[in-house]
Each structure stands twice: as C-alpha cells, then as structure tokens.
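hi! just following up on the protien thing from before. the input was this:
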Amino acid sequence: MTRRPATRLSSLLTTLLVVGTATVAVPDPARAAAPATVCRVRDGRLTEISGMVATDSGFVMVNDGADEASRRRIFFLDTRCAVVRTVAYPSRPRDTEDLAVGADGTVWVADTGDNDRTRSTVALWKLAPGARRPVLHRLAYPDGAHDAEALLLDGAGRPVLVTKQGGSAGVYLPAGSLRAGATVPLTLAGQVRLPLTTTPNPYSFFGRRLVTGGAVAPDGRRVVLRTYADAFEYEVTDGDVVAALTGGTPRTVALPDEPQGESVSYSRDGRWLLTVSETAGQPPGTRPTVLRYARPAAPTPAVSSPPAPTASDGAPTAASPGATATAVARSGVDGTRSLLLGVGVIVAGLLLAALVGVVRARRTRH
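and the predicted 3d structure came back as:
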C-alpha cells in the first residue's frame, strides 16, 4: 500500500528484521505467457486498489487506507471496469486491504492493514446482498498486532486471514461466530511458507516474501496467495483452506514487474487468475489495469530453508556468516547468488541496528 515516509521507515525496519533470515532460493518457476489485458480502471478514485474480486457482473474493488473520503468506499464495477455504484462505510475504516465474496453474494472487506503493528483490533466489514451499509465485526489477535492483506473464505464460509510477514506467514481464524458490536478473538491455525523465486518486482527480494492478497476459486477447490512478484496456488480438499495453505505444495505463476500488485482474484469460471495493481506514485495517466494470467500447471520445486536464528526471547535475529554458509551448502542452487544474498542479509542487519539507533536518538532529543 502507499505509505507516508515515517510509516515506510517503520515498515522497512520490520521487514528487514523478519525477512533477512531467509537465504535459500529455488529455481525460477516456469514463466507464464504474457498476461492479457481485461480492462482499465479510469475512475480517479481508484488509484490505490488493495482488493479485488470478480463477480458475474464485473468486479468489486477497494482502496487501502486512503485519506480522501471519496476513496473510502466499496466500488462495484462492470465488466469494462467502469464504476456503476459505490457503498459507503457507516464509520471510517482504518486500512482496507482485501475482499472476498461468499456463496450467497455477501461481500467481505478486510480492514486489517497495520504497517506499524499498533492496532489492538482489526475488522471485517460484511455487506449482505441488497444492504445499503456494511456491518462492522472486530477481531483481536492472540499474539500481538499483525499486518494482514489477504482475506479468504473456507468451505464453511469462515473468514481466514493471512499475515503480511516474511518467512512464515500466520494463518488465523475467528475463535467463534462473528458478532456486530463485539470483539471476537482470533486463533493461530497454522503457518504458510511460500517457495522462494527470483521474479523481478519493484521491491526485489522483499517483494517475493510478503503476502499481499488472496482468493478462493469459485468452486472452492483451489486457493491462491500472491506477493508483489508471484501467485501461489494450492489444491483444497473438502473446503479446508487452512490445511491446503499449511500442508500443501503450491503451483507458481510469475507476476513480474507489476507496479505495486496487491490484488488477486479468480475469473468467474475459475480458468484464469486476475490481478490489478496500485498506481499511486506512477507517471501521470497510468491507469490500474486488470490483467489475466493462465493458471499454473505444475507444482513448484521446494527447498526447505533452515530455521531462522532466534534470540533468547524468541525474536528473529540477523543471520550469522556461519548460518549463511550452511544455507548456501543446503540450497544446491547458484552458490554465488546465495552468498551475495547472505552478505546482503548481514549488511541489512547492520543497517537496521544503525537506523534503530538514529530513531531512538531523535525521539530522545524531542
């Protein structure tokens, strides 16, 4: 999502700390054919699209936490990407990041973005078919704040949140039925570890590790997560999305060089993957474009990475030179590339320590 400078710094510090421990790469997945353009969004209110889902009549889209009131709405578009109606929230959302549509047509909006990990609760907005306003449902993590940008619905219609963090992303479920006006605790149902790729994207290594969106196929038999660089599709058995993500082997399709790709959806017939990128900060005249990719055909080769080093309190630490060397030996891939990545991790750790010191010094002076 688009961030203010201070928020970008905080998010970068967190990403460097968590992502810096992964040093194993797998061979690139087979590159998909060039995507086809479905349509372009020309409405000026939709420039920070963070969530999209395809419907029988077109698309539903949301922006992330935009400052302008005109952008804080649920947008309904036709098949040509023209906005046909919008629905306002009854109160201001914090940071809407993804969408899902239930079997009955209910639209779910994930108000779960939290770049600085400061929220005591996150929320889901539920818009029933024909309703004029969505209903707010609050949720609380059992283990502290998380940034989450992927919302899925399992076979029972339960919402599933996947966090945006490097390494292993958390998969969370509500502990009970959602209740308007009440806060329902979340439970950690498992973790998902995505294969590493070298797909080019604006955020390089970090962009390949962070989950920015997700979707379940219309027939419920597949689920996909995306990063800024790739899409990873899993087979789902008996509607168990959590089991698919935490225990399955994904198929991968590269989504190279999207400006800031945070959204993914299946086409209504389930044959294609659809994506759209944010365009804030892009050259004038750049329009969000819905792209269509062929679904991946074969599972991605997987290489297990060594566990991340931890400090005494369990927090991830920067990888040591010895750990980096071990990772290179285990990977069986291009040793030079892995070694360079390991050196980069060490440098990132040193930069992180220096930046933290600068931030603390400034806070002390003020």
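Confidence is low (pLDDT under 50) at residues 2-25, 302-347, 355-366.
DSSP finds five helices and 20 strands in the chain.
cheers
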